[in-house]
Amino acid sequence: MTGTQDTKGSGGRLPVVFVGHGSPMNAVGDNPWSRAFRALGAMLPRPRAILSISAHWYEAGTLLTAAAQPRTIHDFGGFPAELYQLQYPAPGDPALAARVVQLLGDGRAALDTSWGLDHGTWSVLLHMLPAADCPVVQLSLDSRLSAAEHLALGRALAPLRTEGVLIMGSGNITHNLRQAFSSLQRGDQSTPAWASRFDAEVQRAVEQHDAAFLTRALDSSDGRKSHPTPDHYLPLLYAFGAAENGEAVRFPITGFDLGSLSMRAVVFD
Q1: Domain 10-268 in CATH 3.40.830.10
Q2: How deeply is 170 buried, as exposed, middle or buried, from its count of CB atoms within 10 A (0-12, 13-18, 19+)?
Q3: Phi/psi of residue 33, each to 5°?
Q4: Per-domain residue ranges for the chain?
Q5: How does pLDDT run across 160-204, given as a tens digit for each residue?
Q6: 3-class secondary structure for the chain?
């Protein structure tokens, strides 16, 4: 059964996770990525709640979903009808949302009842925790903040790990959809050198707990090519920030989808 292990990991704290979520179609397909999400869920301790930082809630503000029953958001277009019919009816956790505001500070974060669970969250969790019986809160990405400021917010979330909360960032370490769709149209699924280099550089920096590199990574040529916009990279900084320096790092999922889309997952424990 997925995600039914003890609620605490090493030293009484839960791991921190970053997941490359990829295409919304991973929610309905039986493919290497959906199977990998299920395996990831099986290897992680069962949390009392999940705090998800999704690339798809990117706006001017740091907000927490505070609804008792967050809606399932289908934030995409042009996909098969079956995808829009999917629901992930996990309960919310208003008390956890308020706790995160407390950790981040009232001046830096606020509660929100208009958003719900977007596909950066539910397309992964419906494989990791298919029963949808674990409370989920989403945290938005403030588009006005620097990379260092996002990482600092991740550090402020670290106490949640000893409170039974799984912190999960959801994005992609490389995410250039124009390049990916162009490759698909050409029938060329080879991974370009810039994507391989950037993915490898981020892997090295994570293993070495190199915060300086990670906060400036998007300033490089490969970083700009990998992320025309920063939204899919920033969730990694929250996961990295919530991890302890020197903590063990694992990469349970690796590889590229559509040639250039890194599906790498990172577990800090």
Answers
A1: yes
A2: buried
A3: -75, -45
A4: 10-268
A5: 999 999 999 999 999 998 876 676 666 777 899 999 999 999 999
A6: CCCCECCCCHHHCCCEEEEECCCHHHHCCCCHHHHHHHHHHHHCECCCEEEEEEEEEEECCCEEECCCCCCECCCCCCCCHHHHHCCCCCCCCHHHHHHHHHHHCCCCCEEECCCCECHHHHHHHHHHCCCCCCCEEEEEEECCCCHHHHHHHHHHCHHHHHHCEEEEEEECCCCCHHHHHHHHHHCCCCCCHHHHHHHHHHHHHHHCCCHHHHHHHHHCHHHHHHCCCCCCCHHHHHHHHHCCCCCCEEEEECCEECCCEECCEEEEC
State phi, psi for 171 to the nearest 5 degrees: -160, -135
Report residue 49 as tokens.
């709640």
Amino acid in position 54: S
The pTM for the full model equals: 0.94
Which tens digit of pLDDT belongs to each residue from 128-159? 999 999 999 999 999 999 999 999 999 999 99
Whose CA is closest to 47, among 159, 170, 164, 135? 164
> Alpha-carbon Rg of the chain, whole angstroms?
17
Neighbours of 190 (CB within 10 A): 12
